[in-house]
Amino acid sequence: MAHFFGIDIGGSNVKIGLVDSEQGLIEKVKYPTKLVKEKGHFVNSFGEILQSEFDKHPEVEEVGIGVPGTISADGRSTLELPNLMELSNAQLLDSLEANLPDKKFYLDNDAHVAALGEYYFGEEKMPENYLFITLGTGVGGAAIIDHHIFRGGDGNSMELGHIISREGKELEEIIGKAGLTTMINKALKKTKKSILGKKIETWDTKLVLNAALENDKTSLKIFNTIGELLGEALVSTIRLLDIKTIIVGGGISQSYDYVIKPMHKVLMKKLTPYYTEKIEIKKATLGNNAGILGAASLCFK
After folding, report:
1. What is the span of the domain harbouring residue 93?
2. CATH no. for residue 38?
3. Measured between alpha carbons, how far is residue 278 from residues 53, 150, 244, 268, 275 in Å?
4. What are 28-66's pLDDT values in tens digits?
């Protein structure tokens, strides 16, 4: 049984997990991203943290890393990381290998690795081909084809959040974290009502989810809109890739029951029987550990 490091670099935390190829996650530790930034040059600071983890687990020889943005075609450097500018355009693997020449590193987008993690560590056996969508700070997407990440021409396929949606806006503009906050407050202003009798100046998605759990009509309408928008984006994606299994992960998975019905309704309406007879929508199972387990999966041959 081999051990690997799976690393999920995010805007809030850098999470490092020790992963067993058969047992899954053994242990994990997280470092606030803010502290890594404050130590100086991000790549150097990250390298120092990683060295300390290797000191604890010298048996680990391979490391997978997921980052929130685009990477180079050769999978060695970061390109655009909007929520982590300090790590943009960094020759990450070159730097790590220079300091740790006896270790092997693999790099990919965070949505890609989360999708791959479901294949190797999900609670259910996964098909060889499936689409993966995630909603959090932004909207992410991935496709697994023949149990490998579909990377596209230069490594950054399936940017689902940048599909043009309603009113000419990108999907992420409407239902990413910032977009959802705007949607929520517009809904409150339009109805001129509080949610569940509570008057809160600014609502966030967690508060609205809690209200939906209590059958608040305004909250349920918001999640219905999210489901419709995701369904519309998936219609084009399904037709382009001819993949009929959809896995839903990220923060959206907490509101899964409210989003899936309107999403499914759009797919049934807009797709032909060739697609609809085999459409299957499932909830991702790895939760907060998806990034770590998925990153470690990059090491698997």
Report:
1. 3-118+289-297
2. 3.30.420.40
3. 45, 21, 6, 11, 6
4. 999 999 988 877 789 999 999 999 999 999 999 999 999
